[in-house]
């Protein structure tokens, strides 16, 4: 039986960039809003602290906030000495933080379903379930990385959007960067174009930070340069992450993804999303049924507190957009690369049909 402390110690000894971990009775996480110039570690001693860290995007990325669901409910069990009601309330709070994040919803639900008994028996049960989820999510990254890397050829230039990497996942490469990192570690000579990703600049701040950390050659562009790069032959493939994939293969991902997919289609460039079976929402028929989180307009009119638009300017910030399935060349999962027709072929990773652990 592996304890959380043993697991964290082992992970910290490997070449992983952990977004969050448990240490001496509290949660520690990298404040991603401070990257790349400061690697501040934030302490969360309560689930309320963790929820605020998720809302404020100190921790973000579909995989990372998914494992927050496991860590958060274990923390609730730990601090409440195994009170089932406190754990359930913690789950409700965490699920309210980011409505588009299906990983978080699924992980919280799995933890709640594992509640059995009270007191220390329950604490230990929550700990073992958390360890199980963490190990599974990291395994997903290695496996989908292998499947995705098989699509990458030596000499390819790959474009990605936002940050779908280690700090947005379980520590190896998240979704998109698991593909890119695996291809690089296989010895393929690749280059990555990373879009800066307004308004939070995750591509410039975090993706470029991780690519540098992993020794992967890369070039930063602004989001509105992607069409130029595709049209002038600078891009061979596009690999993005995923915040939710509907049952028909429509993709919810960082706003701007749809724009890149349209340009890719026009220029006949393969467009892939890297995901896991855990991020596919088989209860959501299509992208039109996905709730898109709308964030505060000040996040567009200001950058780190500095105003960049006239006072009183109205602004819009949908955190995600929906890329329809006909623009997607393939969905990279831990079970393989799934292609159209997606409604039929995604059923191969539906846990209800195939008994895949979630």
UniProtKB/TrEMBL annotation:
This is Methylthioribose-1-phosphate isomerase. Catalyzes the interconversion of methylthioribose-1-phosphate (MTR-1-P) into methylthioribulose-1-phosphate (MTRu-1-P). The active site is at residue 243. Belongs to the EIF-2B alpha/beta/delta subunits family. MtnA subfamily. It comes from Halobacillus litoralis. It comes from the Bacteria. The record marks 162 as: Transition state stabilizer. It is an enzyme of class 5 (isomerase). Pathway: Amino-acid biosynthesis; L-methionine biosynthesis via salvage pathway; L-methionine from S-methyl-5-thio-alpha-D-ribose 1-phosphate: step 1/6. It holds the Pfam family IF-2B. One of its GO terms (molecular function) is S-methyl-5-thioribose-1-phosphate isomerase activity. The keyword Amino-acid biosynthesis applies. PANTHER family: METHYLTHIORIBOSE-1-PHOSPHATE ISOMERASE. Homodimer. Keywords: Amino-acid biosynthesis, Isomerase, Methionine biosynthesis. Its EC number is 5.3.1.23. Substrate binds at residues 60-62, 98, 202, 253-254. It catalyses: 5-(methylsulfanyl)-alpha-D-ribose 1-phosphate = 5-(methylsulfanyl)-D-ribulose 1-phosphate. One of its GO terms (biological process) is L-methionine salvage from methylthioadenosine. InterPro entries: IF-2B-related, IF-M1Pi, IF_2B-like_C, Initiation_fac_2B_a/b/d, M1Pi_N, NagB/RpiA_transferase-like.
